Amino acid sequence: MLGIETSCDDTAAAVLDADGRVLSSVISSQWELNAQWKGIVPALAARAHADNLPHVIKAAMEQSGLESVKQLSAVAVTSGPGLAPCLDVGLRAARQICLDNPDVAFLQINHLELETPRPEFPFVVLLVSGGHCCLVLAKGLGDYELLGNTLDDSIGEAYDKVARMLDITSSGGKGVHGGKLIEDMAARGNDRAFPFTEPMKHRKLGELDDKTKEDLCASFQVVCGGVASNQYLRSRMQSAVEEEGLVAVFPPARYCTDNGVMIAYAGLERYAKGMRCDPEPARYQPRWPLETLQPL
Question: Which stretches are annotated as coiled coil (predicted)?
Fold first, then answer.
């Protein structure tokens, strides 16, 4: 199973065998482009995907030991949610592979559905990312009930915005998301230095030294939590579920950001259930709520 992911600013591809074993995983990120434009510009991100994806797929195939896409059983591709121009690049590539090789099945994947092999159904999912922050009841494959979500920015977006406001997006070096930069600085800061009362929202940042930035990051992190790879969030979640006699399951940190492995694994699950998609009329869905999927 080849998994292709281009929903935002990571160009990713991975190959898994029938048992879900990872044979290869390749990711090309757009750190320099994002730094240059101080954020993600969809049209530029899509152009970078178009340039990078052929090389990423080729590398994933070579690392997997497969000599040709004809040896694949199927191709799974992120078809939403995400940035429309970026989704289009991955969808076109996957569609072409399957049209050129009719024996290779085509599968469209909602990339919110799966991170890694999951616990037994039913279970509750806290999905926190750059674009989403919601609580979902997973009843079965493709069978989800939205319990609640944020009405404004997602937590991941808030992290990135704070990192930009504090001008620390480049201080941690190439290849580090704003959330990770804040987490690293917060580890050196005082989480009680800034109480973040309402008036703090209107206070101008001015010139901040490194120590003040570290304290701000620590205080912000306690207020807002974090995304799934954030150690503070994991610790708080672990404590909360243990108090209720439940078990918390966290995906490995390397699979908390966009990658091809989760797409390929979701493809394996659906392929095993007999799901097949027609590549010719396939379209991407920039907005694709989990609860609109059809149970399998």
Answer: none
